[in-house]
Amino acid sequence: MTSHLFSTSTNGETHPLTYRLREDRGYVGLDEFQQKDGYEALRTTLRDLSPDDLIENMKTANLRGRGGGGFSAGTKWSLTARGDEHPRGYIVCNADEMEPGTFKDRMLMQEIPHLLIEGMILAGYANNARMGYIFLRGEYVLAAERIEQALIEAREAGILGPKVCGSDFDFDIFLHTGAGRYICGEETALINSLEGRRANPRSKPPFPGQSGAWGKPTVVNNVETLCNVPAIALHGGEWYQNLSGGRSEDGGTKLFGVSGRVKRPGLVELPMGVSGAELLDMAGGMRDGLELKTWLPGGGSTGFLLPEHLELPLDFDAIGKAGSRLGTGLMTVVAHNQSVVSLTRNLEEFFARESCGWCTPCRDGLPWSVRLLRAIEHGEGEEGDIDMLLSLARDIGPGKTFCAHAPGAAMPLETAIKHFRHEFEAGIRHQKQEAHAEPIPVGSV
Amino acid sequence: MTMDTPATGNTRTSKASQGNLIASAGRLNDFELTDEERHEIEHEMGHYENPRAASIGALKIVQKSRGWVSDGAVIAISDVLGIPSSDIEGVATFYSLIFRQPVGRHVILVCDSSSCFLTGYDELRDAISKELGIGLGQTTGDDRFTLLPVCCLGACDRGPALMIDEDLHGPLEPGDVSALLERYT
Lengths: 445, 185
Ligand SMILES: Cc1cc2nc3c(=O)[nH]c(=O)nc-3n(C[C@H](O)[C@H](O)[C@H](O)COP(=O)(O)O)c2cc1C
Ligand code: SF4
Ligand code: FES
What we know:
The complex is a heterodimer.
Chain A: H1 30-35, H2 40-48, H3 51-61, H4 73-78, E1 89-95, H5 105-111, H6 113-127, E2 129-136, H7 141-156, E3 172-177, H8 187-194, E4 218-222, H9 223-235, H10 237-243, E5 253-260, E6 266-271, H11 276-282, E7 292-296, H12 316-321, E8 330-335, H13 340-354, H14 360-377, H15 385-395, H16 405-425, H17 431-434
Parallel strand pairs in A: 1-2, 1-4, 2-3, 5-8
Antiparallel strand pairs in A: 5-6, 7-8
Helix pairs in contact in A: 2-6, 2-9, 3-6, 3-10, 5-6, 5-7, 6-9, 9-10, 13-14, 13-16, 14-15, 14-16, 15-16
Chain B: H1 15-26, H2 35-45, H3 55-66, H4 71-81, H5 85-94, E1 106-111, H6 114-119, H7 121-132, E2 145-150, E3 162-164, E4 167-169, H8 177-182
Helix pairs in contact in B: 2-3, 3-4, 4-5
The complex binds flavin mononucleotide (FMN), iron/sulfur cluster (SF4) and FE2/S2 (inorganic) cluster.
FE2/S2 (inorganic) cluster binds next to α6 of chain B.
Family (chain A): Belongs to the complex I 51 kDa subunit family.
Protein name (chain A): NADH-quinone oxidoreductase subunit F
Catalytic activity (chain A): a quinone + NADH + 5 H(+)(in) = a quinol + NAD(+) + 4 H(+)(out)
């Protein structure tokens, strides 16, 4: 089983992530990958480019992190501790994909793991890393099989291991599978988990690029981010930046997707800056009889947007200005007959359960928000509950907690109340009766 | 029997099970790793800078062959890795896919995240509960199934989705449940 693609192309210059996918959507093995120019970027880079050249390319490309944060990958790489005075460190691929509504990395790893491997080796070369780890969530069983197979093929072909492709550079990759918990996706929690500890985040600074796994310089990047690296290395940063052709300042293409109450959920590779309306169309629109009420642009930790926001370009800045976040770029579509209070309760239950428990506002605040939301959902909310929810959301907002998990929980909560306050108010009980001056006659309620 | 769901993941270690662990640490541990398990764990250790990093892998190795991780297994793993059993216990209780109590022969992980919530999670979960007579976090009396909630399975385009053991299924209607479960004996 694989995700439906809205459209496909075999043109590597317009669809760098997906042009090599097979028509039957099976595994693209080493031979086929190489026939389709696979590992060409790695070979030419090792031959013609210095690590600094590659980092410059990455900066020009303006590839913004596809794990949800949108931080420039080139900038991140330029801050890694490199050079003779530093030990060689690690490239860690964040393949923990658990953001509600997100199903893009799974497809890349199941169908074309060699692209990820090539991207990781290039990242290793640029950042002077010794080894790479793919931190894969335990439930992705098929992806694990395919990655293992690709690693073996690459090692046998001399693409991984000592003297990568006959160069002086050595690099190997190991697949590490997780054992659950969303917080493992937070990059410093992920490093703790990789080291065999509880997945509590670490304080920053030091940033992983200075001191990460086992105290060594460590670059953590998302699967999709790393899969973009080979094309940037091969065609240059300017080419990549121009892929988004005036639609967005952010460079390149991205895997977008749609799930929820649409006719044909699925994925598609499109330039940054495509609109939500275009994606919704590709997904066949709403299911029969349903109308669009609201949508999340990129996962459970992004803010609710309205139908009028469908015309916005999907990129980090435009969606940020509308009071949400692009996040992972996979839309969740909500129909008119869905209670926003219930959906918000579902989201906050997720965040409460997945809190790592390290800091108080998140550990105690999120379960409290769930209690209030449940009451409102059942029409048993009390006067002041909505303000209490807003104040809770503020208290777990950016800068108030140890990591970005809690601010991620605050965003859907705040925006749900902002756009749909009337639904929350409808769940507050007996406002009038409590203010009643006369005693209420027995039997009248 | 019931077991904690990951809903309380960060506080899953009950006082009782901590007590058991301390008590059993004082006794001779009658749990033994098989040679195969031990080799697999030692192999795992070789992939990292130090043995501690293999602790989650080691727990998964034991769980793969035995279904769950007993107190004795925690101690045996700590011996192999050379780190305190309390550290192994801390890790074992943190991660939702490590089971510190026996589970059924088949574990159902039903996605309760947003896209599946929108496409019929409640109805799917209720259908499973009705079919098996258990709620989330519980195991059937014949030890055949344990039902647990799980974070977004990355199959939102096929919601509502669930996994049984290593198999992903979706989209599912409540009416599909009975035939699906019959495939797992
Ligand atoms: C609670 C939480 C969960 C996260 N989960 C993921 C994840 O599953 N995958 C991912 O790539 N990034 C995730 N991130 C973002 C990472 O912390 C980090 O920013 C990212 O891996 C960096 O890679 P990128 O710059 O290539 O996106 C998460 C962040 C937080 C706060
Ligand atoms: S914000 Fe939440 S998840 Fe992040 S460190 Fe604090 S308790 Fe843990
Ligand atoms: S929300 Fe259920 S699989 Fe993603």
